[in-house]
Amino acid sequence: MSLKKTPINKDKLNQIVTEARRNQELREQSYRGQALKLYPWICGRCAREFTHTNLTELTVHHKNHNHDDNPSDGSNWELLCLYCHDNEHSRYEETRFGSSQTSKASASTATHNPFADLKNLLGSKK
Description:
With about 130 residues, this protein is mainly alpha-helical. It is built from 4 helices and 2 strands, in the order H-E-E-H-H-H. It has a domain at about 35-95.
């Protein structure tokens, strides 16, 4: 029994990827532009101030983590610097998937104690 591989239509694949990226950029530009008009250019966590020169480092964070929830009043957005935004998503992933708990549970307990016989070793030098 031979398996016949279907050739990948690279042009179609490239078209799909290009369209998805364009749609994402349009979506981001629309809510980002709105958020930058609504809120002062200050990180909502660390209070770092931004100007036109470093505005690319100020991101729009979705409070409910749903990037498709973009009310025009901005109630689901907050402006965060790159670092605070990354930290917020890391904290969200830890609570969502319990990675901090699973890593503690999966961590092995040390069985070797390099200082176990230290007292005897030091005592024999007298």
